[in-house]
Amino acid sequence: MAGFKPFTPRPAAEAPRTGNNPARGRRPEKENPHRINEEITADTVRIVGDNVEPNLVVPISKALQLADEMELDLVEISPNAQPPVCRIVDYQKFLYQQKKKQKEIKAKQTKIVIKEIRFGPQTDDHDFNFKLRHAENFIKEGAKVKAYVFFRGRSIVFKEQGEILLLRFAQALEEIAKVEVMPQLEGKKMNMILAPKPKKN
Q: In order of start, what are the domains of the chain with their CATH numbers?
């Protein structure tokens, strides 16, 4: 057909490069949390990293040159410092290590569960032992226990009896739990908090 030109696909554009290090200047698919290399706008920076003189402050052009010579990236890690602090590292490796640290911190953060055990000021032995067994199970599962005595109406006159009951409860659990908050009266409740003791190695 006259005037028809066959379609020829255009070659894919190469990833941008800066300096002598082929890895420099390449940005991962997701937005970087740091400015790197030529993205850094400060005129002067403080450099940290391996094989770098401590507290070295240099013009940005010199910092980029040092990173280029090491075939690494210049990463701005403290942009609000005076001058901004930059680290000379392999940026992809730096990101990986940062994510790994965050995962480790998250794994160590355990959600604190607090279970409540309610008593009356004149709880009998049967009820006391029943609730004691529940508390033992909660603590062995890693939960804290908030034990409290609820004073209904005029029963507030038995507040000393309620404190004795809570201390007796803590003593019965002393092998596996420690008192985190001693019995204290708040309104019509006397509260005490027990936490699991650290497990012995």
A: 37-104 (3.10.20.80), 114-196 (3.30.110.10)
